[in-house]
Design a protein that fits this description.
The chain is α/β, with parallel strands linked by helices. It is built from 18 helices and 18 strands.
Length: 537
């Protein structure tokens, strides 16, 4: 799909341009993201002291505490943070991770009843719970106190609980990290070792959940990434070895190598093994689990490939509307991925439903400018439950209600999707002259790391580069490898992923949109242009 280009800034002061484009107001905090610059937690959580006091009492009295998490990476890392911290402080604590297919997202009544029967006095939710109104009432009725920590969209009515720690400015694991830090300080423990162990997990969860890497999220991730390569966690070490990670850890390694493995078990069956690998201290056990995660991740990839192919074969032209796919062949664990792939390829909001059983699971992904939670919420009367963010959501629905929901959501999209929103736009930071393509510029760009949601990698436009050579590369020949040169004869090594269909031709003069990188293969450390798009000059 053709992309439109928008150049955001101009000027010789590249640092100033990049800072302005990212809306950076506090440069000291942005460029020196030290932990002591984290926002005071009381500003986020007015009832934090009440939560800390209750958990401290439970630890001291050896009450059974349950950490109730979500089955995705953010929920698993948040669960691991609080389980490990409370265990470190001498508490009696157990985790509860619901089954994606059988129980679905968030609190459920059956789980609350099971936890109450086991004698728990306190449940702490992580990455879920803000929508669990009925479950909160049930917990209270059964004599179990509830602390909810969550970052998802809250409803007009909040759950009745001892304390609600809720903000959309942190990930679920980020909130767990803050709560764990306060607990460690409340016990006057030598907290540094456990604090940094928690920080590693919070960085993984924050990146995996696509939380904007600005402000406190940036501080958590910047510091957590620094520690990840030297982690003492046997499970992470085993994942690195299994995946062939032997360099510094960046958001790429977390988002595309580590997180998919941790997510796979919850998508295909139950996420408990992913929690186990985060917590185990035994190297042999960690190695076994890492191999299992790799195997399950391959199964997840195969299931995604089959489901996506079927969805595309049966997809009618979405035109200017929303993509809607529903079938009993879609495994519930991959529908979010299918929706994401469809949305990315066709640049439309996408809803995919797995019709396995009478109660069906749905997942949605959206594009910039179209709030998918608001869209789904407009047809909430057909749903059993729902939750999510502006760009991603999930829900449950009775199979008999799917046709009515489909009709309503398509009608909503037709009224609210604007045509100008249906063409992807590349936001280019600024133009760079050919003489600016050097390691000095790359060093300046690296000052803005880590990149991710909310702090994207800078994109540049350089015009008038000539194609010296180009060839298709990759297993399926979908990518291109090219050498481009400018007026001064400097040759630039370039690579473009999934751009083979655009037909770059030798001898043509082109304008190129790219990010600046370094090819360190075999110690070359050559400057490389990672091409995002190009067109003839």
């Amino acid at each position: 799909m053709e992309k439109s280009w928008t150049v955001l800034g101009n000027g010789r002061d590249l640092r100033k341009v990049l800072t302005k484009n990212r809306g950076v107001r506090d440069e000291e905090k942005f460029f020196r993201p030290h932990l002591n610059k984290l926002t005071p937690p009381s500003k986020f959580f007015p009832r934090l002291d009440k939560a800390v006091d209750r958990i401290k009492r439970a630890i001291e009295n050896r009450e059974l505490v349950y950490i109730y998490g979500d089955f995705d990476v953010d929920g698993l890392t948040a669960t691991a943070i609080l389980w490990e911290t409370i265990n470190f402080l001498g508490g009696k604590v157990l985790p509860y991770i619901p089954h994606r297919g059988k129980e679905g997202y968030g609190l459920n009544s059956s789980a609350i009843e099971t936890i109450a029967r086991e004698g728990a006095g306190l449940i702490i939710t992580v990455d879920c719970g803000v929508g669990g109104l009925a479950e909160a009432k049930l917990a209270k009725k059964l004599g179990v106190e509830l602390i909810v920590t969550d970052h998802h969209e809250e409803g007009k009515v909040l759950p009745e609980c001892l304390a609600l720690l809720h903000t959309k400015k942190l990930s679920g694991s980020g909130i767990a990290f803050i709560l764990a830090r306060e607990l460690l300080e409340a016990f006057n423990k030598d907290i540094e070792e456990q604090l940094f162990k928690n920080l590693e997990l919070a960085a993984i969860g924050t990146i995996a959940d696509l939380s904007p890497l600005v402000n406190d999220n940036r501080i958590i991730v910047a510091n957590g990434l620094h520690n990840l390569i030297n982690t003492e966690r046997a499970g992470l070490q085993a994942i690195y070895e299994e995946a062939g990670i032997n360099k510094k850890i960046t958001p790429y390694e977390v988002g595309f190598i580590i997180a998919p493995r941790l997510n796979a078990t919850g998508r295909m069956d139950h996420a408990i093994d992913s929690l186990r690998i985060l917590l185990t201290r035994k190297k042999e056990r960690a190695a076994q689990l890492a191999k299992k995660l790799t195997l399950v991740n391959r199964q997840r990839q195969d299931a995604l490939s089959v489901s996506l192919e079927y969805a595309k074969e049966n997809l009618k032209d979405p035109g200017d509307g929303i993509i809607f796919a529903s079938h009993d062949s879609y495994p519930a664990g991959v529908i979010g991925l299918v929706a994401g792939k469809l949305s990315e390829e066709f640049y439309r909001p996408a809803i995919v439903i797995s019709e396995l059983g009478e109660i069906c699971k749905g997942s949605a992904r959206s594009i910039s400018g179209f709030d998918i939670v608001k869209a789904i919420g407009s047809s909430e009367k057909y749903l059993l439950n729902m939750g999510g963010h502006e760009l991603a959501a999930g829900f449950s629905i009775s199979k008999e209600k799917i046709p009515y929901f489909k009709e309503a959501i398509i009608e909503y999209a037709e009224k609210n999707l604007k045509k100008k929103s249906l063409s992807p736009t590349l936001e280019i930071d600024t133009r760079l002259g050919q003489s600016d393509l050097n390691h000095e510029t790359l060093d300046l760009v690296r000052e803005f790391e880590p990149f991710g949601s909310g702090n994207r990698e800078p994109l540049f436009l350089t015009e008038g580069l000539k194609v010296a050579s180009v060839r298709n590369v990759g297993r399926d020949g979908k990518h291109i490898k090219a050498y481009l040169y400018g007026k001064e004869g400097t040759v630039f090594d370039s690579v473009g992923f999934n751009l083979a269909e655009k037909e770059m031709e030798k001898g043509n003069t082109i304008d190129v949109v790219y990010s600046l990188n370094e090819d360190s293969w075999k110690g070359n450390n050559k400057l490389q242009l990672k091409i995002k798009d190009f067109r003839n000059s």
